Amino acid sequence: MKITESEVRYVADLANLRLTDQEVLRMTAELSSVLEHMDKLNELDTAEVPPMAQVLYEAEETATLRPDREKPPLGAEAALANAPQAGAGHFKVPKVIER
Amino acid sequence: MDIASLTIDRIHEGLRRRAFSAAELAQAALAFAERENPRTNAYLHFAPERALAAAQRVDRQLAAGEPPGKLAGVPIAVKDVIVTQGLRTTCGSRLLANYVPPYDATAVERLEAAGGVMIGKANCDEFAMGSSNENSAFGPVRNPVAPDRVPGGSSGGSAAVVAQGTAVVSLGSDTGGSIRQPASFCGVVGVTPTYGRVSRYGLVAFASSLDHIGPFGRNVKDAATLLEVIAGRDERDATSAFAPVPDYTASLGESVRGMKIGLPKEYFTGLASETGDLMHAAVAQLEKLGCQVREISLPATGYAIACYYIICTAEASSNLARYDGVRYTYRSPGAQTLLDMYRQTRGEGFGAECKRRIMLGTYVLSAGYYDAYYLKAQKVRTLIARDFQNAFGEVDAIVAPVSPSPAFKIGEKIDDPLEMYLSDIYTITGDLAGIPCMSVPCGRTAEGLPVGMQILCNHFQEETMFKLAAAYESARGF
User: From CA B353, how far away is CA B365, in angstroms rounded?
Assistant: First the structure.
């Protein structure tokens, strides 16, 4: 299926991705050719086929819960070390609520 | 000391005979790697202090008469999508250029606990998205065998450092062929283990239902040894398997007489002629070893590319949503509002291929398209996995090409994303089914470009795979 320029802009908004006008043009052409290839899947009748969400293999049932042991946490300082802006033990972002 | 010809066995022999210490080896390997790097750009950064400390631990253990770990003193490179505490982990992205992780990946922890000496982080396509290593924000990697050509991707750096000999083994990651294809292009061994065999704790997520960590080596035994060390259940990765880890190196050298091998007919059309010739010669060699070779069919193969690029981009669009300027180093300086901050940070930070995949993934998951693309692809994935299950009812292993052609020229395919995606045809199926697969060198073209043979086995049958690969390796005669 071909994708239009306005659809590309709409999807970019959904993805929180700012694209330049040039990128939108290029993306429209590139995504269209990839999506056209993907239409090939419609050749297959999958009405009776269950979807595969994860890799499954024969294995014994095993408990996947781990013991609830106390462990030291990462700590605020280490967790914030890569923050572009931090303060008072928190990540800082531009103001979202006007008072 | 000729570092480029070292193997794990030779290192252990050298340490035992006191021909060199682990610290001397680490220093020599680092100096060699730093000297070679301008030619390939395979390392993004080095870890001299950490490497030396690890090597000195090994030397102290040896001096105290303690038994050395399986990787004692072995210089190792780690793909830069695998996190390392206190050591920059960029994922080949401008967004994470200054990211210094606060913890180690389980695989890194385990290889260092076994005496491994991590000397540096290997270049790769941005967030492991690509088949040529041209999508790194820090420049492409050059193939050490042919510098005007790509090393393959996305683990291009991890393959290149082993091929050039600056690391003895390395860690890569594979989502659609990112270990096997560069291994094939650079002429080394690359292994994608069973899904869940190696913990992904600390592997920066690209497509979680497809991501694997796996080893590179210059021979089958070295790669098998590294896998043995990093494999096994990890409570910090709920998808890691409980199945016990066998001694992979124990079965190497056993006869493969009578082993049933399937050649999927769908994988032998559209091959470059020299790749086809080398594959046929390799198959003839397997027959000489006593394997029973027969043609099989994996009928859904032609749908794998479409299926894969729907699923992996959908998962990528979710996984990469976290890079929004809040937690991970880069934030666009100009933005005034929160939404602008998200959008500008991501628009400026991600490279072209990441943006393309985020867009595709968001599109196939968006309202009105979910059933037509994502759900449809998941159903086709079932068909692809069933093909393999049917085949493994008849054969012990499948042998196939890794890539339709050998390493292409830098720049040759970068402007045509679909063309680049189509070259992944023979490797993505193994990831979709979650089965173990590997690339083992099977010769060179007249131009001297390496070609790899792919071996695929059923879930958790790594031993069979390694046994066959090792038998071929010792018989192939180069």
Answer: 18
Among B367, B368, B376, B355, CA closest to B311: B376
A81–B100 CB contact, under 8 Å: yes
The residue to which tokens 């005669």 are assigned: B477
**Cα(B181)–Cα(B190) distance, integer angstroms:** 8
- Cβ of A41 within 8 Å of Cβ of B377? The answer is yes
Q: Which are the catalytic amino acids of B?
A: 79, 154, 178
- Tokens at residue B197, please? 């065999």
Residue of chain B whose alpha carbon sits nearest to that of A85: B326
The full set of domains in chain A, from first to last, is: 5-43 (1.10.20)
Strands B397-401 and A86-87: unpaired
Distance of CA B242 to the CA centre of its chain: 22
Please name the member of B317, B341, B358 whose beta carbon is closest to the beta carbon of A93.
Answer: B341
Please tell me if residue A15 touches chain B, with a CB cutoff of 8 Å: yes
| Average pLDDT of chain B, as a whole number | 96
Other CB atoms within 10 A of residue B383 CB: 19
Q: Which of residues 25-54 of A touch B (CB under 8 A)?
A: 27, 30-31, 33-35, 37-44, 46, 49-54
**SS3 assignment, position A41:** helix
Q: Which residue has the tokens 């994988």?
A: B267
Q: So what's the pLDDT on residue B465? A: 98
Round to whole Å and give the CA distance between B429 and B359.
23
What's residue B477's pLDDT? Answer: 77
Residue B353 to residue A84: CA distance in whole angstroms: 24
CB contact under 8 A, B209 and A96: no
Contact B25, B75 (CB under 8 A): yes
Q: Domain B3-251 sits in which CATH superfamily?
A: Amidase signature (AS) domain (3.90.1300.10)
- Confidence label for A64 from pLDDT (cuts 50, 70 and 90): confident
Per CB-CB distance under 8 Å, the chain A contacts of B91 are none
